[in-house]
Write a structure and sequence with these properties.
about 450 residues, 17 helices, mainly alpha, binds phenylalanine
Length: about 450
């Protein structure tokens, strides 16, 4: 290798960056509306189980593969001696491009809402449906957001992200805590908290399981090699196992808090929790309005601004996937790779952008076999990329780690920075999950959901 890779400055820098990738719109925009659609607490419980039991071991495995190979996702398998497995990384790169294409649109809405809150336009919450059809405005914000992401990625990975994540994530946490405290004092708080926390097991069905699994992977930035890439920038001195615990807790913690904050608001404003992708955009402005004109503007704009930054540390890691692939594989200059990928991603995002009422074709894009309601283009891409391919990526990573790369080598890598690891109970747990739990569970869910969700074949 000609030039040594840049590395994160220390463990905290790495955890901040990886948690920055994990915490984003997935936690604050997507998680609450998925909970709303999935029947509240039922979804929450399944999501937590998947996150801690199943995803955590895969998370440390991805980071270990990255650090061992010193390569980005798609190039990581060759230096480990298994070039045939490169396809796993390539699926990941494709997933990253697909996810970023719609993620960027939502980030554009967030920027737009930041400006609306600055202007004190709290009524925008009631006009979300028409706001998202204003394509001239939305595409401007989307483009601005993409350019910001592209600029940071073109500067190389470690510099920008570490700094941004260390300051902005704690700020976001503080404002969410303040808003949650405020939420608890509202009239609807009881009903909201009950919907969110009191278990109703009758609501659990295959669709809830499928979406909760996809949400766990999406939220942890898992299953597409984003963490392989980040791991490749991590020094051998650092402890992957405990970093992974911190990342998982930070991510699930912020998502949990987002739910606790939003559902009281949703119920106090009489909004339908099943509302879908517009949920936080319909709910939050009305809440800021109740704070009075000055405080409402300050808190409202700060909330959306910090949310935009949280989204930015995630879009950076998404764009890094195709970019590092092109740099590592085709030896293209980083800057060119960035602008080329960004251009493609912007174009791919257009169908998602117009799929919220502007274009009838993309709004009612496809009706899966056996269903009556069509889904829009963004939902369709989410179902393919994040709900189906990410868990499938997790399946492949588990099989690869145990059967191809072998447990011994995985453990050796995890022991760097954590010398006692091999003898710890966590080692047994990780090994057990990767061998006996994740492959059959993820494999079965993959097959069942393809048949049932997309083709209407009733299995269970
Ligand atoms: N985890 C990010 C979020 O929750 C989204 C993401 C997915 C980022 C996959 C990178 C890779 O917002």
């Amino acid at each position: 290798m000609a030039t040594p890779r840049s590395t994160f400055s220390n463990k905290f820098g790495f955890v901040a960056a990886a948690a920055g990738s994990a915490v984003g719109l997935g936690n604050i925009w997507k998680f609450p509306f998925e909970v709303g659609k999935g029947g509240g607490s039922a979804f929450l419980i399944i999501y937590l189980i998947f996150t801690f039991v199943l995803c955590y071991p895969i998370l440390v495995t991805e980071i270990a593969i990255g650090r061992r190979s010193q390569k980005s996702a798609a190039m990581a398998f060759k230096p480990l001696g298994h070039p045939k497995w490169t396809f796993v990384g390539i699926i990941g790169v494709i997933c990253g491009v697909l996810i970023l294409s719609f993620y960027n649109i939502v980030a554009g809405w967030v920027l737009g809402y930041f400006v609306e809150m600055l202007l004190g336009n709290f009524e925008i919450g009631e006009h979300f449906d028409t706001y998202v059809t204003d394509i001239a405005e939305i595409s401007g914000y989307t483009l601005a957001f993409l350019l910001a992401t592209a600029y940071i990625v073109s500067q190389g990975i470690t510099k920008g992200i570490e700094k941004a994540s260390k300051i902005l994530m704690p700020s976001l946490l503080v404002i969410m805590l303040i808003l949650t405290a405020y939420a608890m004092m509202l009239d609807g708080a009881g009903a909201g908290v009950a919907f969110y926390l009191i278990p109703d097991f009758s609501k659990i069905d295959l669709n809830v399981i499928y979406r909760a699994l996809g949400q766990s992977f999406f939220s942890l930035s898992l299953g597409l090699g984003a963490l392989i890439t980040y791991g490749s920038y991590l020094s051998r001195k650092e402890d992957i196992v405990s970093s992974g615990i911190m990342i998982t807790f930070a991510d699930a913690g912020i998502a949990f808090l987002a739910g606790l904050m939003i559902f009281p608001f949703v119920f106090s404003e009489g909004i339908e929790p099943e509302g879908g992708a517009g949920l936080i955009f319909m709910t939050m402005p009305g809440i800021f309005k109740t704070m009075g004109p000055t405080l409402g503007v300050v808190i409202g704009s700060l909330f959306f601004l910090l949310l935009a930054f949280a989204a930015l540390t995630s879009t950076i890691s998404l764009l890094e996937l195709p970019v590092s692939y092109m740099v590592d594989k085709h030896k293209i200059k980083r800057k060119w790779a960035v602008w080329y990928s960004a251009g493609i991603i912007f174009l791919l995002g257009i169908p998602s952008m117009v799929g919220f009422g502007y274009s009838d074709f993309f709004t009612n894009f496809i009706t899966y076999v056996g269903r009556t309601e069509p889904v829009n283009f963004m939902d369709f891409v989410t179902d393919i990329a994040s709900n189906t391919l990410l868990p499938f990526g997790g399946f492949l990573v588990s099989v690869f780690a145990i059967h191809i790369w072998k447990r011994r080598k995985l453990f050796r890598e995890l022991s760097h920075g954590n010398p006692g690891f091999t003898r710890s109970w966590l080692a047994k747990y990780i090994s057990f999950t990767l061998t006996y739990i994740s492959p059959p569970v993820l494999g079965a869910i993959f097959i069942i959901t393809i048949l049932e969700v997309f083709f209407g074949v009733k299995i269970i």
